[in-house]
Amino acid sequence: MILTVTLNTALDITYRVRTLRPHGSHRVSEVAERPGGKGLNVARVLAALGHEVTATGFAGGGTGRLLREQLARTHGVVDALLPVGGATRRTVAVVDGTTGDTTQLNEPGPVITPAEWSAFLEAYENKVRSSAAVALCGSLPPGVPVGAYAQLVRTARAAGVPVLLDTSGEPLRRGVAARPDMVKPNADELAELTGSHEPLGATRDARRRGAHTVIASLGAQGLLAVNAEGHWRAGPPHRLRGNPTGAGDSAVAGLLSGLVDGLPWPARLARAVALSTATVLAPAAGEFDRRAYEELLGRVTVTEEANAA
Amino acid sequence: MILTVTLNTALDITYRVRTLRPHGSHRVSEVAERPGGKGLNVARVLAALGHEVTATGFAGGGTGRLLREQLARTHGVVDALLPVGGATRRTVAVVDGTTGDTTQLNEPGPVITPAEWSAFLEAYENKVRSSAAVALCGSLPPGVPVGAYAQLVRTARAAGVPVLLDTSGEPLRRGVAARPDMVKPNADELAELTGSHEPLGATRDARRRGAHTVIASLGAQGLLAVNAEGHWRAGPPHRLRGNPTGAGDSAVAGLLSGLVDGLPWPARLARAVALSTATVLAPAAGEFDRRAYEELLGRVTVTEEANAA
Question: pLDDT (tens digit, 9 = 90+) per residue, A148-186?
Fold first, then answer.
């Protein structure tokens, strides 16, 4: 079983309007709603690939109840979310039907009490022991200590379970120092962590900070992975247009899927790039196009270079 | 008991952001949520004035459940909403913290089935018999026939219960023809109904179309009321700044409150103007400032003119 952790789950709402006019009144023509937060997105992709997956984190209030009802209809994801007193946040993505651009509104999330955080740590420790891999994903809700991910990384490592961290800012900085097996920053997160905008140098710097393997997601350029054995670049066969929402989460799912299937690094990266490309190509935000995925798998370019450093 | 009808109830969500940038990503700093739809707003104001009030209409899905839970915490409003299979809509108001302007996103509402509409008609007929007055408010959700308000007006009139209609477009046009005791269009709704932008002429025209009394809400200019006995203008004592959300619903509550308290027209109009002004002055959208209301009551100007027509 793969365990995904989403401390700040969200009910993701997408609205389509004809044209977004600030300070105007809009009739929403289409409404879509789904369980969100990076770890739940990762869990959904892993389940679609046929993996056993358990999603933990927090859910509360009326929105938390809606989220769990919808999660229950997501085939293959076991709901191990912990109930909290506060209400799970909503995110609203407003898609302009004329330009295709998206305006994003993110609620902050519920305040987690110290007792709720302690209950989570205990439940997490139990779940980790029966996990093949763990993904720690997304922002921290108010009330959770900034060193939370560092603590969750240490627990996984103590249990001998591979752990991937995908977050940003200070939680990423502290989490990296706890020596996770993998971190998957995007270009902005990597620059914020290291102060460098040069991808290979920054990725190596992130590794020196403690992560065993750093997999940087560089948008249209694909992935750059660095570890003690070498470094790899993996990219899609051609430039593509589409909605990048969820592409990073699909890459995380690909990395974990390749890990538990025992694939070598180049094949893991190919899986991650094919999944993330198939997510950009899918019409619905955050879904992946299975045919495109299968077709792309054999066409991802992975180049390997020996470590000079 | 006063009965308010809200066929297209809504969970009204208000977001505050620092500055709204189209196609940007925003952290919402404040989230407020309340049961909405014009009839529920009217009910809340009536209850705050001490009236017994029952709210009917439709509620369904996860948002309907949230709405009913919040309505249960609204002191004095009896929930007589009918459950439906579809999900109650949300409305999202995004307040720009820099300019104070609001961008509004309105979901369309659930499709009401013919069976749900029939069940409503039966329940409404029963409730009307024990009502002192009825308010029919707001838009129609998909599936409800466009002549719905005409039918609800006729049922109230057959039971001898005074009925006020506050809607727009074709539902207003058809509803007026069914001869309601009162209609309360705003300037735009009145112009759309009559083709005239001249308030007194348009108000008289609306009356000829079937309404016994037409009370036009003219924004900062207050109310213009016309019936067989005469016509009145009622306005606030001074120009005011604030949030006009819900001011029209407060005016409706004032008119109904004055009616069931047996007040003559000038006093009813004064109550409506004082309530709607106290709503504009309140910090939270759609709430009214009770002290401002009591203070304003004696200071609203009402001028009466004999009918020349």
Answer: 999 999 999 999 999 999 999 999 999 999 999 999 999
In a domain, A23, yes or no: no
The answer to whether the Cβ–Cβ distance between A108 and B17 falls below 8 Å is no
Quote the domain boundaries for residue B110: 2-305
Question: Side by side, which strands form the sheet with B53-60?
Answer: B77-84, B53-60, B2-6, B133-137, B163-166, B182-183, B213-217, B223-227, B230-235, B301-305
E strands in chain B: 2-6, 10-17, 25-27, 30-36, 53-60, 77-84, 89-96, 102-106, 133-137, 163-166, 182-183, 213-217, 223-227, 230-235, 301-305
Amino acid at B62: G
Domain count, chain A: 1
C-alpha distances (whole Å) from B55 to each of A52, B39, B109, B129 are 47, 7, 18, 15
Task: Give B233-278 pLDDT, tens digit per residue.
Answer: 999 988 777 778 889 999 999 999 999 999 999 999 999 999 999 9
Q: Give phi and psi for B149, each to the nearest 5.
A: -70, -35
Extract the residue ranges of chain A whose pLDDT is less than 50: 309
Structure tokens at A220: 């249209």
Q: What are phi and psi of A225, to 5 degrees?
A: -120, 135
Do the domain assignments include residue A20?
A: no
ipTM tops the 0.90 cut? no
Residue A297 lies in a domain: yes
Burial of B125 (0-12, 13-18, 19+ CB in 10 A): middle
**Nearest residue of chain A to residue B92 (CA atoms):** A92
| Identity of the residue in B24, B69, B107 whose CB atom sits nearest the CB atom of A103 | B24
Beta carbons of B55 and B4 less than 8 angstroms apart? yes
How far apart (Å, rounded) are the C-alpha atoms in residues A50 and A47?
A: 5
CATH number of A295's domain: 3.40.1190.20
A95: closest chain B residue by CA: B23
* 8-state DSSP, B23: T
Residue with tokens 């001869």: B179
Q: Is A291 exposed, middle or buried (0-12, 13-18, 19+ CB in 10 A)?
A: exposed
